[in-house]
Design goal:
Number of strands: 15
Bound molecules: N-(iminomethyl)-L-glutamic acid, fe (iii) ion
Largest sheet: 8 strands, parallel
Low-confidence stretches: none
Number of helices: 16
Shape: globular
Distance between the termini: 30 Å
Strand order of the largest sheet: 5-6-7-8-9-10-11-12
Mean pLDDT: 98
Radius of gyration: 21 Å
């Protein structure tokens, strides 16, 4: 008999993300009707049919027992790619783009990301903490229990550290688990406009050592694309970061395929993100090296661009994560479940793959190995209860929030 201090009973549909061999589409996400889940001390200890709960689990005298009813209970969502800490709004740039202006041209003329950098450099820690807190709360309302957050709007040592320190304060003030990523190589700051190699030196020789000595990041990202960092620069930055213990990833192929997937495979990166443009060779390299493709349908939606072909990547054997890419320029949203709908309608993913993309595969994209994104025994009891009868409704009934309750480490944090 297993002891449990938190038990969910009569779960209309329990979705564990632990694949089984029933051969049904439900098997891919480990879905079963009339399930039960038992947790002890913040971790899952047992998941199975409600009818077998009594024989397997002995609730403690003070255990909380919840009758879930005709709803879905599944792992808390994981958003593996956000730029949540920034100041200002880019609604005017959005309007300019609607009128025909081009994102990269706006950037090249000193607007876009540079506007956010100007404001973020001026902003105090307190105001950044306040605005990012609101966004993180909205993410929680949409069921996000783990969230990656990048720097990248500081672009000098002081302000990159400031942003990552804000992420540290966010982690202390919010229940969610955060994964901080250093993105000093987001764009070349205006003061290094004609000295790109000198900026790469600064990133490698000053910023990465400062960030890692202070323990402020777990991952390092680079924006590899036309007009920003090239492949050699990305290789140097990510190699330096890996030597200092950071896991690596990159923004690849958003506008042009510059061989990011091959580089991600060569470096053993956890993910290559965006992937609107990729070659078959690149997809094969990623599949062989086990690099996750982190697709960001909100960016394609907001930029009015074509979506990456998720099904083609799956057919090449690449695992797919999905993210909001929440940021002020290309994807101003916190609605992660909406990305599931976009992925199945515009990127040709199955609902099952799309839901894995915001749970277990998102955990892989972040290099997390503690079972997060599943409800397997031993995994942290990070979970959501959704007011839908079937997991397919998360994709089908879109744009509204179905989240009713959220638990992190077995503690109710919402609902
Ligand atoms: O993931 N493309 C690069 N970075 C972000 C956008 C940042 C911004 O425009 O502020 C992205 O789309
Ligand atoms: Fe991004």
């Amino acid at each position: 008999m297993l002891a449990a201090d938190l038990v969910f009973r009569s779960i209309g549909q329990l979705v564990t993300m632990v694949e089984d061999d029933r051969g049904l589409s439900e098997s891919r996400v480990g879905a079963r009707s009339q399930g039960a889940l038992a947790c002890e001390d913040g971790a899952v200890v047992w998941a199975g049919p409600d009818s077998e709960l009594a024989a397997a689990v002995q609730p403690t005298a003070t255990a909380t027992i919840i009758n879930v009813g005709d709803r879905v209970l599944m792992p808390g969502f994981i958003d593996p790619h956000t730029h949540l800490v920034f100041d200002g709004s880019r609604h005017l740039e959005f309007a300019l783009r609607l009128a025909g202006a081009d994102y990269l041209e706006i950037l090249a003329s000193g607007g876009g990301i540079h506007n956010t950098v100007r404001l973020t450099r001026q902003a105090t820690r307190e105001s950044l903490l306040q605005s990012a807190s609101k966004r993180l709360e909205t993410l929680l309302a949409f069921g996000v229990t783990t969230c990656e957050i990048k720097s990248g709007y500081g672009l000098d040592t002081e302000n990159e550290l400031k942003i990552l320190e804000v992420v540290r304060s966010l982690a202390a003030a919010h229940p969610q688990k955060l994964v901080p990523t250093f993105l000093g190589a987001h764009v070349f700051p205006v003061e290094y406009k004609d000295r790109h190699d000198a900026y790469v030196d600064l990133v490698c020789e000053e910023m990465i050592p400062a960030v890692t000595s202070a323990g402020l990041a777990q991952m390092c990202d680079v924006f590899l694309d036309q007009g920003v960092f090239d492949r050699e620069q990305a290789r140097r930055i990510l190699t330096t970061a890996a030597e200092r213990g950071l896991r690596t990833r990159l923004h690849a192929g958003q506008f042009t395929d510059l061989g990011g997937p091959e580089l991600a495979a060569e470096l053993g990166a956890t993910s290559a993100d965006h992937m609107e443009h990729f070659s078959e060779r690149g997809a094969r390299a990623m599949a062989e090296a086990g690099v996750v493709a982190c697709l960001l349908p909100g960016a394609a939606l907001s930029l009015g661009m074509s979506y990456p072909d998720g099904r083609k990547l799956r057919e090449a054997g690449v695992e797919i994560a999905l993210s909001t890419d929440s940021n002020p320029g290309t994807s101003r949203t916190e609605n992660l479940p909406l990305m599931v709908t976009l992925a199945v309608t515009a990127m040709r993913l199955s609902v099952e793959d799309a839901l894995r993309g915001i749970t277990c595969t998102a955990a892989r994209a972040l290099g997390l190995g503690d079972g997060r994104g599943t409800l397997a025994p031993g995994a942290p009891a990070d979970l959501v209860i959704l007011d839908v009868p079937d997991y397919r409704s998360i994709a089908y009934h879109f744009g509204v929030n179905h989240v009713r309750e959220v638990f992190i480490d077995g503690r109710r944090v919402l609902g």
